[in-house]
Design goal:
Chain lengths: ~290, ~675, ~325
């Protein structure tokens, strides 16, 4: 192993290094490009939409793609292109913040269980298992049907459900760390528990948890779109890919453009997030199947 | 003239670095293995010895490739053969005994099956004949009850047993050449000695050629006819075992032998500075130049070639070998005896300490009631004086680490108490100890990879005790850190390094620095040199001794290596299954009379001298639990008197030398018995 | 050994118990009760009283829980919200239909996943791996409703090979169902198989890099023998747990897929009952689905236990 002597980096430089490593492989680069594109699109699209996404015009119903309407029109005469480029905004916002919540609560609970061990750990994990065994769809649908489908409800609800998976990973990572001698060393010196958790344990489990969070982000997006598809997510007339697919599929046989455009938008975003999350994992060294010479 | 079984010609193996450079792990290796001979290949980590051993089987690890040269087995180049052809040779003509047998046996297959597999592949025996052969092989490697053994899974066997199974598996095909990659590393001292004896017997019995790869010169000395020394991917010395070990003519071997603590010349050995260069970093000149005390400018500019010296029957890669030939080889010049200033006031007193070791959860309190009449550690009574180094010696299961953890407050004692500074009782529970006591007792661990937080820089690591105990901040803190690092010979440059960027020796120095930063009175050293390379061990030991002389710190030094213990300690306590067997001044413990267990341990020590053979006095059994009554050593004692040893706890007897032995045999009888042996 | 099995089963039952508590409590805690949501604007006066009476909502919560749980244990899920349907009768055939779909997906998906996972691991980074891995990565990322929709678009509409929407009634027999499940099964198993294949690949690669595999090679064991005897048993054992988890995901995926294909199974029932706020049905569904999940995990756990030599012998020693 050739040891390179690096200067100590501050946080920004570290982030830059990680991104550089991610971009060095083709899959990572593609992922980053797609993801950045989508994020930019989501942020900036309202500035240059050609039409109003709400504008209904029955006379323009189901027109195929043309120079006027690049992606054609849907069953209510709305411009599909406009709705497509706006379609990711809610999805990205909800899932991004949802993932943050999932990360925070899942990570905290996981670390807590890993540290405490014993009966409390067993009980909490049993409860988590029980929650995991209720098909998420059932629970989500229940919550949104009773509490509504505003983003205020969706973000914590999604965050809660997807955080469960992170608990296991955080717990396992914590177990790995606390067996190590440097933790014993810190205990023996008499550092307070809080300081040990903050200084010694967190920096070493942080990577695993972040990677897991990144992967959950894509699953959450899947879940969110499924909800929208079923009519339990975003409410019309807000443009959302899941909802658009649901509306358009009945008429697929003669208006394929209305369903293909949102499918393409959603799939590309999910692939982008997945590739990025994968590259992120590799860049942080959290990957099982790498083999380096020497 | 013996036939060569294997000939290696100018072999260079390496890999392509990220920048596209070709970097060699093995450089121009040329040597041969003759029929019936045992060749020991010695080198530290990074020398390329494992790569060479694997290459001798035609195996090159993924990521590496053959840059040039060949490895000929009889008349075929192994490195160019197809997988099919290699399958015919591996196991049948050349067999390998791996380093960690436990990891090298397939977990889901019974061991009988795995040996049978080897037989099916490499012999033409029928089913019934094979069953017989399996029993025969298991007997040959001295494993008891072959029928039951064959039905077991690998994880059900002890380390020593797993190693023997690996040997049996390798012998199944009656190979011409046996390759052994560090086969005794990680085994207990007595187990090691037994396995080596077995290997010697097999070599003589079957006439198989053996290649024994190790970093342990003691082990190599016991089995080899010939020794090859490797450094930085090259062969630097190749000759008969006696001439290499008694009269080494290469500076590296010379320095290496000097730096190993030996029982025959007790004292702290000199260490070599520096460490082995990284592959690809030395472009010109001799790879040992940086660390060589004999080198001159010529050595820096030109690379020496491997030269064969006729009258010594040795090949050497050095311009200066003649100088070394004439050097006085007496070891006594190269060790210094330690003089510790011991104040006769007690710093630590363990009285009647018993510990029951149960798995603890982090942050969780152990229940106060521990129902255990047969605790892991029992009746420990030791007084430790300020400024001395007390060694705790024993094999695995002896309880030595348990006692250390108890002193540190990480494990609760079941009975007895530990007093600090004559009268201050140390609380059982870490959380309740006063911070003065926490500061006064510091720990250094065995594995430097795990004892330093991989996410902290060296600066952060050393700052921990300074901030915690002294409240230092800012510029004061930084200056103090630099001061501490300086004491362990690490420069300012190291402040921003992460542990993964440091070598094993450097990491251990940081751990030592961290312990000393707290200005402790007592430092508990738990096998602190066991995970380090041989040449680095001496450096760390010397460092510890220097620091002790500067600060007057008391050390409690746990180790299984008796030679290291002899070099560094004032007093030694020998433990077996958590009970004290013997305690006394070091030089006396190593002389007779000794407790029978001490005798066993001393007998099993492997000196890097082929003429000093280990004495195997006791069987190599691993005991799970201490016996309920009587002497702890009753299960393995070669001098057992009878029922008295099984029923009554033996009394303490003090010899004229000042060491105390716990045994039923009278001291004078013991002494005369041991001396006559 | 025996005790370990009993212990696992008990733990499973405890999990189910907790699930029942969660669903029951969850419903209680959320705003509005069954009657007010069902009756909506008519939620007052005599109608409300009658509704409460019928559903037993005028009785304290824990009593309701006990009587409900008791019923469930006997297999009786009570009545739907409107009080008109016995839940058991409604659920029965739908459960059967969904099980047909799920079983078919599992039976097809698992062997294919194992095969693909092993192939991609053994030919790592070569052409088979690159092609299959790219396809699996794409499959993994597509939501079920998209894959289902695309399948309908391509296979049913453009190519007209198979029917897109299922029109058979709930009580259809097996033979009537079968031709209709082809597309849904493909939609579900595409994703499930992709997930499992990646996990199997990972596990096999890890085992291939282990010391004991290297030892087997150095022993001269022929390649394929080594794969079957030394690698696969050790690689596939941890895969059992993954399979169990994937099947659990399946339960959720089935719901969405059934909606897309209009398949007469539990999926549609879930959507309908939630839209209609038919809480007794929802509770029943939650317990059923959770039981299936727990049951599958239990089987996976016990299978792993029996097959893992380490755990097996530990038990024998005791």
């Amino acid at each position: 192993m050739i040891i390179k002597y690096e200067k100590q980096k501050n946080t920004f430089q570290k982030i830059y290094e990680v991104i550089k490593t991610m971009a060095s492989k083709p899959s990572g680069l593609i992922g980053l490009i797609i993801l950045s594109f989508h994020v930019l699109l989501a942020i900036t699209s309202p500035l240059y939409v050609p039409y109003d996404y709400k504008a209904i015009d029955p006379t323009l119903m189901l027109n195929p793609p043309s120079s006027e309407f690049w992606f054609g029109t849907d069953s209510l005469g709305r411009d599909v292109f406009t709705r497509t480029i706006l379609g990711g905004r809610t999805a990205l916002t909800v899932t991004f913040f949802g993932s943050l919540i999932a990360l925070l609560w899942g990570g905290s609970l996981g670390i807590f269980c890993g540290l405490v061990g014993g009966k409390i750990d067993d009980i909490v994990m049993r409860i988590i298992d029980a929650f995991l065994s209720i098909p998420w769809i059932l629970a989500m649908l229940l919550i949104v049907s009773l509490l509504g489908t505003t983003t205020l409800v969706l973000i914590p609800a999604l965050g809660f459900f997807y955080g469960k998976g992170i608990v296991r990973v955080a717990r396992a990572a914590t177990h790995d760390v606390i067996a190590k001698d440097f933790i014993v060393s810190a205990r023996a010196r008499g550092h307070s528990n809080l300081s040990i958790i903050w200084n010694e344990i967190l920096p070493n489990v942080r990577d695993a948890i972040m990677v897991e969070g990144a992967m959950r982000w894509s699953w959450m997006l899947l879940g969110f779109s499924s909800l929208s598809f079923l009519g339990f997510g975003v409410s019309p007339p807000t443009p959302d890919w899941g909802l658009m697919i649901s509306n358009a599929r009945g008429l697929m046989s003669f208006a394929y453009w209305a369903v293909l455009a949102p499918i393409f938008g959603l799939s590309s975003l999910i692939i982008g997030i997945n590739l990025t999350a994968d590259a992120f994992a590799k860049a942080l060294g959290i990957d099982r199947s790498t083999k380096a010479p020497v | 003239m013996k036939n060569a079984v294997q000939k290696i010609n100018n072999l260079t193996i390496g890999f392509q670095s990220q920048k596209g450079e070709q970097i060699s792990i093995l450089k121009n290796i040329s040597t041969s293995i003759n029929q019936g001979e045992t060749v020991g290949i010695v080198g530290e980590s990074g020398s390329g010895k494992s790569t060479l051993a694997l290459a001798m089987m035609g195996y090159v690890k993924q990521g590496l490739f053959t840059i040039s040269g060949e490895c000929m087995f009889h008349s075929n180049n192994l490195l160019e053969m197809s997988n099919k052809e290699l399958e015919n040779i591996r196991g049948r003509k050349i067999a390998m005994i791996p380093q960690n047998a436990g990891q090298s046996l397939t977990p889901n297959l019974k061991i009988g099956y795995q040996i049978d597999e080897a037989l099916r592949l490499h012999t033409d025996l029928k089913q019934s004949e094979r069953d017989e052969k399996i029993s025969e092989l298991l007997n040959k490697v001295r494993l008891p009850s072959p029928e039951t053994m064959a039905q077991r899974y690998p994880h059900e066997l002890s380390g020593g047993q797993q190693q023997r199974v690996a040997v049996a598996m390798a012998l199944a095909g009656s190979p011409e050449l046996l390759l052994l990659d560090e086969p005794t590393t990680g085994l207990d001292v007595t187990t090691q000695a037994h396995v080596l004896e077995l290997l010697n017997l097999i070599a003589k019995d079957t006439g198989t050629s053996m290649v024994y790869v190790s970093h342990d010169l003691g082990a190599i000395a016991q089995v080899s006819d010939r020794v090859i020394v490797m450094y930085s991917g090259e062969i630097v010395l190749d000759g008969p075992v006696r001439s290499i070990l008694k009269n080494p003519i290469h500076p590296y071997t010379f320095g290496l032998l000097k730096s190993i603590p030996k029982l025959t010349s007790p004292g702290l050995p000199n260490s070599m500075s520096g460490s082995q260069p990284q592959p690809g970093s030395i472009k010109n000149g001799c790879s040992f130049y940086e660390r060589c005390e004999f080198a001159d400018d010529n050595c820096k500019a030109n690379s020496p070639i491997l030269e064969f010296i006729e009258n010594l029957n040795t090949s050497v890669r050095c311009f200066k070998h003649n100088e070394l030939l004439n050097l006085n080889k007496s070891d006594s010049q190269y060790v210094k005896s330690i003089k510790n200033k011991i104040l006769k006031n007690e710093i630590l007193d363990l009285s009647n300490v018993s510990i029951s070791y149960a798995k603890q959860k982090f942050l969780e309190q152990l229940l106060n009631k521990i129902n255990d009449d047969n605790p892991t550690v029992k009746d420990i009574n030791i007084n430790i004086d300020k400024g001395e180094t007390l060694a705790l010696v024993g094999e695995s299961g002896s309880g030595k680490s348990t006692i250390l953890k108890s002193i540190a407050g990480l494990l609760k004692t079941k009975d007895g108490n530990i007093k600090f500074d004559k009268d201050k009782i140390l609380s059982n529970d870490l959380r309740q100890r006063d911070s003065t006591f926490l500061r006064a007792i510091q720990l250094i661990f065995q594995n430097p990879d795990e004892s330093l937080n991989p996410n902290h820089t060296v600066e952060e690591i050393i700052s921990q005790p300074l901030r915690l105990y002294f409240g230092l901040k800012g510029q004061d803190l930084k200056e103090k850190i630099i001061e501490v690092l300086d004491k362990v010979r690490l420069g300012e440059f190291y402040l921003t390094r992460y542990p993964r960027q440091l070598s094993g020796g450097e990491k251990q120095r940081v751990a030592v620095a961290r312990a000393f930063a707290a200005k402790p009175d007592i430092i508990l050293c738990d096998e602190v040199t066991s995970a380090l390379d041989v040449s680095v061990q001496a450096a760390v030991l010397n460092l510890l001794q220097e620091l002790k002389e500067d600060f007057g710190t008391t050390y409690i030094f746990v180790s299984h290596d008796l030679a290291v213990v002899r070099a560094i300690s004032d007093r030694v306590a020998v433990l077996y299954q958590g009970r004290l067997c013997e305690i006394g001044p070091s030089k006396n413990v190593y002389k007779f009379p000794s407790h029978p267990y001490t005798e066993v341990l001393l007998g099993a020590v492997l000196e890097p001298d082929p003429d000093i053979k280990p004495k195997l006095v006791a069987e190599d059994i691993v005991e799970e639990k201490p016996p309920e009554n009587g002497c702890s050593f009753q299960g393995r004692c070669p001098r057992i008197l009878g029922d008295i040893c099984k029923n009554e706890v033996p009394p303490w007897q003090t010899c004229e030398n000042g060491n105390s032995i716990r045994c039923h045999i009278k001291m004078d009888d013991l002494k005369s018995q041991q001396i006559s042996n | 050994m025996f005790f370990l099995v009993i212990k696992r089963i008990l733990l499973g039952l405890i999990t189910l118990f907790i699930v029942s508590l969660i669903t029951f409590a969850g419903v209680e805690v959320l705003p509005g009760d069954a009657c007010t949501t069902y009756l909506e604007r008519q939620a007052f006066g005599a109608a409300l009283e009658a509704c409460y009476e019928r559903l037993g909502l005028n009785v304290p919560a824990y009593e309701r829980y006990i009587s409900w749980a008791w019923g469930v244990l006997q297999g009786d899920f009570g009545y739907s919200l409107s009080g008109e349907m016995k839940i058991n009768e409604v659920l029965g055939p739908k459960v059967k239909n969904s099980l047909v779909l799920a079983s078919a997906s599992i039976l097809i998906g698992i062997p294919i996943a194992l095969l693909l996972g092993i192939i991609t691991a053994l030919w790592r980074d070569k052409l088979p791996d690159i092609i299959i891995s790219t396809v699996t990565i794409f499959s993994m990322t597509i939501p079920e409703f998209i894959s289902a929709t695309l399948l309908i678009l391509v296979v049913a509409i453009w190519l007209e090979w198979l029917p897109g929407i299922v029109i058979v009634p709930t009580e259809a027999s097996l033979s009537e169902l079968l031709p209709n499940i082809i597309l849904p099964v493909i939609a579900i198993s595409m994703i499930m198989t992709a997930h499992m294949a990646r996990m199997v690949r990972s596990s096999v690669i890890q085992v291939m890099a282990s010391d004991y595999v290297q030892m087997a090679i150095l022993k001269g064991v022929p390649y394929w023998k080594m794969v079957f005897k030394h690698v696969l048993p050790n690689a596939l054992l941890p895969a059992i747990n993954v399979v169990a988890l994937t099947i659990a995901w399946l339960l959720g995926g089935v719901v969405v897929t059934e909606v897309v294909f209009n398949y007469p199974g539990l999926g549609r029932l879930v959507i309908e009952s939630i839209s209609n706020r038919d809480l007794p049905v929802v509770q029943a569904l939650a317990i059923i689905l959770a039981s299936i999940y727990v049951g599958i995990n239990l089987i996976a756990d016990l299978t792993t236990l029996m097959l893992n030599p380490r755990l097996k012998s530990l038990q024998i020693k005791k």
